[in-house]
Amino acid sequence: xxxxxVPYLVKRFLRFDKEQPxxxxxxxxxxxxxxxxxxxxxxxxxxMNGFDNEFKKKLTVMNYPLTVLPKFYxxxxxxxxxxxxxxxxxxxxxxxxxxSVMVKSGSNLEGGYLFGVNFDDEANVxxxxxxxxxxxxFHKFDVLVxxxxxxxxxxxxxxxLMYIFTSVEPGGLSVTPKIKRFKVRSIFDSGLSAYxxxxxxxxxxxxxxxxxxxxxxxxxxxxxxxxxxxxITKLKKALPISTTVRGWWEDNVNFFAALEMEKASLFIVxxxxxxxAAINIISSLLMTVMNRRGEIALLLSLGAxxxxxxxxxxxxxxxxxxxxxxxxxxxxxxxxxxxSTFDIIHLPKDVYPTSTLPLDLSIQDFFMIVSxxxxxxxxxxxxxxxxxxxxxxxxxxxxx
Length: 400
Prior knowledge:
The chain has about 400 residues and is α+β, with helices and mostly antiparallel strands. About 55% of the residues lie in helices and about 20% in strands. The protein has 2 domains: about 5-60 and about 255-400, no CATH class; about 65-225, no CATH class. Helix 1 packs across helix 12 (about 305-340). The chain starts with a helix and ends with a helix.
């Protein structure tokens, strides 16, 4: 037998057979199924990663990478702040005071949180706030509100906005809630309407005065870090036992766990498309084996080994599968480029920070998809190849 018998037979069996057109059609359907499956998987995984990353960016900004919190009242103070700034010069710190409030404008009422901050320090740890306060000077009882709240209440700059605090103060024979009117000085837009509606910022001194807090006492310290998962360990070692530090991810564990589960479920479901296409590979190869039984028996009688026959049909299935995977990769990457570049699918600006789809295909997901599809293709081609190598020469030749 010639050494090139395997590639020769693979090319021959891939040709269109006028007498048995359904074999070719079945192979073509398998090719198209794998192509579509890989394309959809690549775009779907890129889409999941893109939205995941966008949410992480926004949650990191509005929840802050790290936050130092007290375990009991008075534990976070000016002395602790100065100590941290000296020990960690690469990190940025912003002390804050916060209170849950009800915001009232006319007949409109909305719940949320009011943060008292030093705007210069807060601008170093919050890029959204830094953009909003550019060229704006804040005085006592000035407030920075979110775009969603501004649109809901139809607020204009320098307009008075009433804040009702949940803490109460005695008044004669009863207690009354604390109420204060603040002047709207600027608007911030984080891209997430829930934060834009719930969060407001005023000066640190203003909120400390309303809450009757000493000027050197804080409710916590916002910390900006480029590597929060590493720096949180260093901070824990440096902090006194009366305080603790939390990372932004610790407050959103369930949310991102749900995203990961959704991503894994989507991967499994879409991989079934490739699995269904692989069934066409099996049926196509089995039909080829049944149609070529006489040729296979003749080849074996002329000296071809069972291993060579097995390789012919194994390679035949792999060629169909790899062609489908390659076409799927080209279409998938092209689709990702087009969808992420052009505004084909428009996203609402009040919900998402961009009007184009946020697509981000990771190298890990790419290789998982390609390797998973390849394993399915090889597994699908193995059984027909094995059946082809087990053809009984005497029985087939006698019947033929």
